[in-house]
């Protein structure tokens, strides 16, 4: 039996007057199960959900049209041209993959740190990761020019007798992102198995029962099974933690390994990872605030969750600010003409407006998160999250476009303007992401039911 | 009574409890009474429950370790074989065996193999997927996925006796006791 204070009871307490609890008191195993399960099984399909899904599917249709045209004509329909080979496709790739990282942070890193408040937001944050990685994965493939030979990226014994070149960070990226997608998917599924068993028993129609039954693999809650399950869960968290850090590190290597001014810098890995978590938590809030409101889950996704997310955003935002500062400092301290020009070009060049907008959205405006009243206001948090998501997108735009348009020789400079097809693909993936989220919250428990049961004080085994 | 162990008429006896604490104490009592072929069932993981039924060590960590080693070695071996033996390319005058560059894919392969080995290993060791199980014949057992706790002493246990075991289980003060048919 466990000694010492009962940690689980403390979770429902209020440590100090202004602090909201992790779960409102008065819940039981049954009430937790019903609230989460009924949102899927009993709740009728609402007009708002249908409308939201319809809009998102509209953008998916746009994506389909844009990609079809891309396949017919080629990447010339985008704004890219030498010297700007990487345009929106790579900006969006980095942006989406960064958003995914918060999901892994919540599900894995916070699990290892025993931050049990994560239990009510990890499920949909993991779903968010999965869909964000799916969106991210589309871009390098679409950007290839000949996407039907995308499998050439993988090492396989081909009849051409050629193999990938493993000194290139682009090949590392293939390994990092595909591993990340696979591990995120299995982590998510393993977490869902006991809840599928709950849904199997809760479902009334034969058909629904059968579907959840198959997905649950016949889970029956045996103590032996739970023991193995728990040891796997903690190990997967331990594996996913260095993985998530490595993925964005490898993404930053795509830039840092090159010699381009503004890219060739050692600060990229930590600053990319911090930026990823920054934008990821912003997306978590963009999703959590409406979900808890419309599905009446305020007593499980409480203000404590939103406030903690806001604090993580504030902290990672400051790391990003540190990155911006040292990028500028090193450009001058290095004494390299090209580095210094890169920075001056960002400040006063043709894309200066986007740079200053990025500073405003990513650094200046989010400082209001220092004010407790702002952290306690869902409307403020929602708007700030959108601001941060835009800011982080601009960050990737500035990094990629300013360095590529003006490198060493003025004779090789260029200018980049995105075309309508660039925007169509980008907004199309946004539609895909939200459509997937809309469908997810209707067919799977959006909050981990069994982990919520563990948060209840009565789950603690008392000594005789 | 040896015929019982060979072809028991029932799968076992199952007792229902209201709280995790009751379940753990009942499991401890059953273990102390000499029962070994039993299992505790709960709607969420209870560390103490697996201890109480005498299941102390899961082999999942070993499977994960082996998977990780296999992944790391095969990842590195693949790159070495490709870039040094099968398809050597001169890239910027770097040595063919530029092993620092191979670290990243080796690392990712380590995690990939370790994770997949763990997931498949966990399900395999648990004997899942198993859509049908005798316990599902007991209607009340459905609530294990909701709010109830169960202890099942299996008929395969050498100490199992339909009358004595039932009597023993009654002393554990369960909510109910039922026979689990095959």
Would you give an account of this structure?
The complex is a heterodimer of chains A (464) and B (182). By secondary structure, chain A is mostly helical. Chain A is built from 16 helices and no strands. Chain A is globular, with a radius of gyration of 23 Å. Chain B has six helices and four strands; from the N terminus they run αβαβαααβαβ. The longest helix of chain B has 27 residues, at 60-86. Chain B is rod-shaped and about 80 Å long. In chain B, 44% of the residues are buried. Classes of the chains: A mainly alpha (464), B alpha+beta (182). The interface between A and B is large, with 68 and 72 residues.
List keywords for this structure.
heterodimer, A: 464 residues, mainly alpha, 16 helices, 68% helix, 0% strand, globular, B: 182 residues, alpha+beta, four-stranded antiparallel beta sheet, 6 helices, 13% strand, rod-shaped
Q: Short summary of the structure?
A:
With 464 residues, chain A is mainly α.
**Percentage beta strand of chain B:** 5-15%
Q: Count the DSSP helices of chain B.
A: 6
Please state the average pLDDT score of chain A: 88
Quote the distance from N terminus to C terminus of chain A: 9 Å
Order of helices and strands of chain B: HEHEHHHEHE
- Greatest contact between two chains: A-B, 68 and 72 residues
- Please state roughly what percent of the residues of chain A sit in beta strands, choosing from under 5%, 5-15%, 15-25%, 25-35%, 35-45% or over 45%: under 5%
The gross shape of chain A turns out to be globular
Helix content, binned percent of chain A: 55-70%
Overall mean pLDDT of chain B stands at 88
From the alpha carbons, calculate the radius of gyration of chain A and give it in angstroms.
Answer: 23 Å
What structural class should be given to the helix and strand makeup of chain A? mainly alpha
| Number of DSSP E strands of chain B | 4
| Alpha-beta classification of chain B | alpha+beta
